[in-house]
Amino acid sequence: MPKLKPQYTAEVTPQYKQATANKRIRYTIEQNIMDHPEILEEFDEWISKARNIRSVPSFDGIFHGNYMPPLFDIRKAEIREDHGQRNALTERSRKSKILGIAKKFDPMQFQSIDIDYLVDEDVFIIRDGGGRSTAAYLNGVFMVPASVRIVRDVAESRRLFNAQDKYNAAISSYDKFLQQLLDNKHSRHKMACDTWSIANSSGFCLDHLNKSAETPLVEGISTLQRIIRHVGGDHKETSWGKRSAPNVSTAIDLIKTTFVGIDEIPVSALEAITAFVHVSKNRIPSGEEGFARLKEFMSLVRDSSPNLSSLNNWSSELLFDSSNNYATYGAAALMKKWNEVFKNKNRGRTSSYRYVKWDADEIFIINSKIMQFSRDDSLYPNV
Question: How far apart are alpha carbons 66 and 84 in whole angstroms?
Fold first, then answer.
């Protein structure tokens, strides 16, 4: 089904265009369902099994004759993500929820959708209620209760969406992130741009649509931004808008090298490994030699136990599964593991950079506070 043109109907940032290059931004409910045939297939299969016990939903007789809300034809409306709307079918959890609503569609419980009428374009867009509208459409119900507001421009439509955002916990962190990326006046715009640029340059993605072995998915925008801010490796004076987070890039390279073909990276493991890279900076060689040593370490940890062969198990197996302490507990756990797998590594080593042995006090400190230790001259050759 052809795209509605133009793809972007509002002024958007270059970063937002990059983040949305592989998806529709402007579409109808029907187009979105056609783009996700699996939801239609599952619903049709359910219909075929439930036909004898299912009645066709209808709003007839639902409302008091004196207080009838207007019914709007959802086939006449668009969804525009660059205005603030979100796709009802791209997240697995939302898709399952919408299928559940569709299968148990109850006109008595249907909440009116919010429609913005853009005067200058003579077009209707669904600002809130795309999921409910999708569930109705699947049932062949096209006329639904709606509140239709006249909106002057895109800025007002976005303002209404963001005001609604404050009270709607169901809006995902990624949808909020896209809005921050889109709006260059948003207080978190620079943070969003850095986050996007770091993901792009480091070789990972932030949404399921782009997940692959080349760009594994990292979910958890707020945790990722915490990683960038606290252990990303930028100078402590670096502000948002200028961050590059070299430690995150190193950690991603280590993970992709150690777990070949991985397409989803637990943010807990990413924070722990990035924190360990940060803590180790002055205790391992710089450049390629240091990366080779970290890569060797990662492989040895992976192979040290069957349960550690999957990165998904690292937080539970190494005991850093507390969400507020992925960095501290994780780095401390990896310091212990380093001592274990490299226990005999320095025997006979005099002419090259020795392997650090973390002492108990250092591990104790990192378990509660992330910091970098000073250079240890005893690790250097012939010292």
Answer: 34
pTM of the model as a whole: 0.75
Contacts of 133 (CB under 8 A, 6+ apart): 29, 74, 77, 88, 113, 126, 144
For the stretch 245-262, pLDDT in tens is 999 999 999 999 999 999
Strand, coil or helix: 82: helix
DSSP annotation of 115: E
Q: Is there a cis peptide before residue 70, judged by omega within 30 degrees of 0?
A: no
* Count of all residues that appear for the chain in the document: 383
Contacts of 153 (CB under 8 A, 6+ apart): 118, 120
Write out pLDDT tens, residues 285-344: 889 999 999 999 999 999 999 999 999 999 999 999 888 899 999 999 999 999 999 988
Long-range contacts for 212-215 (Cβ within 8 Å, ≥24 apart)?
Answer: 212/263, 213/260, 213/261, 213/262, 213/263
What is d(CA 25, CA 9) in angstroms, rounded to the nearest whole number?
Answer: 9
Using CB atoms within 10 Å of the CB of residue 306, give its burial: 0 to 12 exposed, 13 to 18 middle, 19+ buried.
Answer: exposed
Residues 116 and 130: their CA atoms lie apart, in Å, by 13
Contacts of 65 (CB under 8 A, 6+ apart): none
- Residue 373's contacts (CB-CB under 8 Å, 6 or more residues apart) are 279, 282, 283, 362
